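Re: weekly structure request thread

Next one in the queue (136 aa):
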Amino acid sequence: MSAPAKQFLLVVDAHSISTETSGDLLKQGEFYFNVNGRRTPEKGDLILKAHQHVTFEPPLQVYSQLFQTKNVQKVEIHLKVKEHDVITMDDTLLDQKLQLTVGDKSLHQESHDLLSSNGKVKTTIKIAIREVVPSM
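Done, posted below.
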């Protein structure tokens, strides 16, 4: 008889965001996170001017996913910071892919400082992968 599948919860939290640009012709930009196609915040935007820094207290959860696996599984997190445009398509200011492993440890945590390719947007995220153990 094979071992039962284990459950793991993957959570990505944003701890801060810094901007060197508003990303808009106006003096402020409307920012949001997009992780694996999911938008955070779901409604509304983070209003930021150029050269602003925001620390999220408590951290802003930008993604979560539950996995059931018997084996180690590779997972890709595709994180974008976007600036909302009313008239044209939204601008992607930061675009990063991270490769993670699920199922090899009961608890795994890592932190990443992500910088856009042009250096104008920086965000600090923390990733936690926890085994979900039902109580008896």
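The beta strands are 6-19, 28-35, 38-40, 46-49, 52-69, 73-83, 91-102, 107-115, 121-132. The mean pLDDT is 90.
Next request, please.
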